[in-house]
Amino acid sequence: MNALSLVNITHRPIILGVVLSFLSYFCSFPSYGFHEVDWSQDAELTLGSPRENIYNLSDSDFLHAIEDGREHAFRWPVDVTGLLIPYRPFSQFLNEDYNNPLRRWASRLSKTIVPFRNSRGLFDWMGLLPYSKELDDKLSFLQGPLVKHYKGNPSGVSFIKRKGALGLTFGCVSCHSGQFLGRTIVGLNNKRSRANQFFMMAKKVVPLVNSSFFKMTTKADEEERKMYFLARENLRAVGGVTPEVLGLDTSLAHVALSLARRNEDSLATRSSHFEKYPRKHPLESFPSSSRPMPWWNLKYKTRWLSDGSLVSGNPILTNFLWNEIGRGTDLKELEDWTEANKDVVQNLTAYVFSLKAPHWTDFFSVKTLNLSKAKKGEKIFKKSCQGCHGRYEKNWSDLSFSGGSREELFKTKAVYYPKKTRVIDVGTDEKRWQAMKYLAPDIMRLGFSKRTGSILRPQRGYVPPPLEGLFLRYPYFHNNSIPNLCALMEREDKRPKFFIQGPSLNEETDYDKDCVGYPVGNKIPPDWYQDKEAFYSTKRPGLSSKGHTKVFYTREGNSKFSEEEKSDLREFLKTL
Ligand code: HEC
Ligand code: HEC
Predict the structure, then answer these.
(1) Per-residue confidence at 550, pLDDT binned at 50, 70, 90?
(2) Of the candidates 337, 354, 371, which is a domain's last residue?
(3) Within this chain, do residues 106 and 228 fall inside the same structural domain, yes or no?
(4) Is residue 401 scored above 90 in pLDDT?
(5) Are residues 348 and 395 both part of a single domain?
(6) What is the mean pLDDT of residues 9-14?
(7) Residue 48 belongs to a domain
């Protein structure tokens, strides 16, 4: 009797059971104290119960998990990562003056002007933000324990030691923390990140400098030389494109073009042939940029990415995969790492799902909010918006609410976001969702996807996101094309075609409180015009600000709301 004939009708349930428990082992990584999470495409949320504590941990285990997870969000935890920059010789080289022969030679040959003079300058150029525990402590939305030590480095700067050599790399928060009025908000997208540009620059400069020359000119020791050697080797397997504009991220192209430099097997093994002659890929020229979505929305959703194309699997594992493909890492080593570090994955997952959105009153006096206007805006929202964006139950409607502060009155008591996250085409720029059809097959081929139960499926449209913390999430839409909420409520042809994504430091000049977002037109601070990279033009492919107009305008182009009503609606949106 051969093994196959055993699979008769009566045995099927048992075999199915074995297969399912095998699968669920890999999909949800259960371990002591952690409950299983349904990451499948059938997952449904209980209405009004967001997955804030996604593993259903006890209070003390939960605090412990998110404290540890937070460390991993700040510091890249994958120690088998393919790209580590030997920090000591690198910063010494940067701190040298421009007459260092290596520096002169490299920048001349690569025609790249290295636009920073020391490692602090590099971090600033990359858009990494200062992090202050003291400021954090003052904000109501950040509860729970804080990371123990930052050593004064900006968010995302990470060090990994390998055989005594200190390697520099960058953690999740380099893309997933943003600035609002001088404060660093963890979970917000970094609006001025140059992570992709950094890779593109390294790709130009590093191939020109071999490891012995590197060692000689920077006085690196042998372990540092080896670290540089490996990074240089792995960069050969990294492809990418520069984002069209500051603040967007080219992760889809970065991953696809890197895979086009590897073999097409399930481990995407290295290939010196494809490193030299990468396979042609549509994402070389097809715009696919998007910005990271805020982390505090995760607890409300059942599928991931701006287009909801990750329909199954823990999105944190997908992030490790994408980031490590983009760093030239050996995928077998990455698989082994995730196997051996389930607690890291779990704690990081617990942390990002636990985050809360900031409130308007964390930054501005409650006197800047008008209750009767906000209540009128709420009525409009209920009629026109909540079907897609979810229902927000406010404290001001709670008859039993008494004794709380005025700040509390404006807060949201409960959010009812659909049980299953939807994807809807409201006519916004189609390039990003279309681009997924070029990446999905490359990812689905990988053993990593099968092992982790991840399914990436192209979609039509985008997820209508939950709107908490909306007031600091500008510019809006997946492609950052809408500078503020006044622009959102304009007819397509009247929306600004140009704006500048300046820094957010000064409350008076850098933020339009009435329009909720960037100042546009003659309100743009004059010094912002010096920062050409931050110019946003909606005329470029992938950057159009079209769509999402049916809720505001009739087919004939007439506004459904008066200016007064639009202003009331904005007043309500500020309180989310
Ligand atoms: C180089 C920048 C970058 C880094 C580093 C990065 N991400 Fe992201 N992340 C993005 C972008 C861009 C998207 C959105 C892509 C899209 O949806 O089009 C994203 C999406 C996500 C999502 C899905 C959000 C949602 O609402 O569906 C999660 C979760 C996430 N990232 C977590 C992480 C974690 C955890 C890390 C660290 C392990 C990390 N990211 C590192 C850029 C980055
Ligand atoms: C038919 C579904 C639908 C309705 C109704 C709808 N929206 Fe949206 N909304 C979307 C989708 C989908 C997106 C994402 C578009 C994108 O990123 O390209 C979106 C995006 C947004 C954003 C940008 C969010 C961000 O983080 O960038 C805002 C703000 C917004 N909608 C407000 C509203 C308001 C206010 C109303 C009611 C007047 C409304 N929406 C009605 C589907 C809808």
Answers:
(1) very high
(2) 354
(3) yes
(4) no
(5) no
(6) 40
(7) no
Residue nearest to atom 8 of ligand 2 (CA): 464
Q: How far is the CA of 376 from the centre of ligand 1 (A)?
A: 36
Determine the pLDDT at residue 97.
Answer: 60
- The lowest-confidence range among 105-109, 160-164, 300-304 is 105-109
How remote is the CA of residue 279 from the centroid of ligand 1, in Å?
26
Q: How many angstroms separate the alpha carbon of residue 391 from the centre of ligand 2?
A: 13
Indicate whether 336 and 414 sit together in one domain: no
Is the domain of 409 the same as that of 292? no
- Residues with Cβ within 6 A of ligand 2? 306, 384-385, 387-389, 424, 426, 428, 461-462, 464-465, 470, 473, 476-478, 488, 548, 551, 569
- Span 156-182, mean pLDDT? 92
DSSP secondary structure code for residue 249 in this structure:
B
Contact 361, 410 (CB under 8 A): yes
Which ligand 2 atom lies nearest to the CA of residue 474? Answer: 27
Query: Which is nearest to 322 in space by CA: 244, 264, 431, 238?
Result: 238
Could you say which ligand is closest to the alpha carbon of residue 347?
Answer: 1
Q: Which of 132-141, 150-159, 224-233, 384-393 has the lowest mean pLDDT?
A: 132-141
The mean pLDDT value of the chain amounts to 88
**Of ligand 2's atoms, which has the minimum distance to the CA of residue 552?**
38
Are 242 and 209 in the same domain? yes
Which ligand is in closest contact with the Cα of 334?
A: 1
12-26: average pLDDT? 45
d(CA 548, ligand 2 centre) in Å:
6
Q: Is the pLDDT of residue 409 over 90?
A: yes
Report the residue count for the chain.
576
Q: Clarify whether residues 367 and 324 are in a common domain.
A: no
Tell whether 243 and 381 lie within a shared domain.
no
Number of structural domains in the chain: 2
DSSP 3-state assignment of 204?
helix
Q: Which atom of ligand 2 is nearest to the CA of 462?
A: 12
Residue 381 lies in a domain: yes
Tell me the average pLDDT across 282-310.
97
Rounded to the nearest angstrom, the distance between the alpha carbon of 356 and the centre of ligand 2 is 20
CA atoms within 13 A on the CB side of 41: 11
Out of 354, 381, 410, a domain closes at: 354
- What is the pLDDT, as a whole number, of residue 317? 97
> Measured between alpha carbons, how far is 183 from 177 in angstroms, rounded to an integer?
10
Residue 50 lies in a domain: no
User: Which residues are CB-contacts of 372 (< 8 A; sequence separation ≥ 6)?
Assistant: none
Residue 131 corresponds to which tokens in the numbers above? Answer: 């992090």
- Ligand at minimal distance from the CA of 290 is 1
Instruction: Find the domain containing 121 and state its range.
Output: 59-354
With a cut of 60, say whether residue 10 has pLDDT above it: no
Question: Residue 202: which of 107, 272, 108 has the closest Cα?
Answer: 107
| pLDDT of amino acid 99 | 65
Task: Specify whether 190 is located in the same domain as 254.
Answer: yes
pLDDT digits (tens, 9 = 90+) for 497-509: 999 999 999 999 9
User: Residue 386 Cα, ligand 2 centroid: separation in angstroms?
Assistant: 10
Residue among 548, 571, 572 to mutate when testing ligand 2 (max atoms within 8 A of CB): 548
Is 449 within a domain?
A: no
Tell me what pLDDT residue 241 has. 93
91: its two tokens: 């910063």
* Distance between CA atoms of residues 27 and 518, nearest Å: 41
Q: How far apart are CA 368 and CA 508, in angstroms?
A: 14
Residues in contact with ligand 1 by the CB-under-6-Å rule are 172, 174-176, 195, 249, 251, 290-293, 297-298, 304-306, 315-316, 319-320, 323, 348, 352, 432
Starting from the CA of residue 355, give the closest ligand: 1
Distance 446 CA to ligand 1 centre (A): 19
**Which of the ligands is closest to the CA of residue 306?**
1
Please give the residue that has the higher pLDDT: either 389 or 400: 389
Q: Among 192, 227, 252, which Cα is nearest to 89's?
A: 227
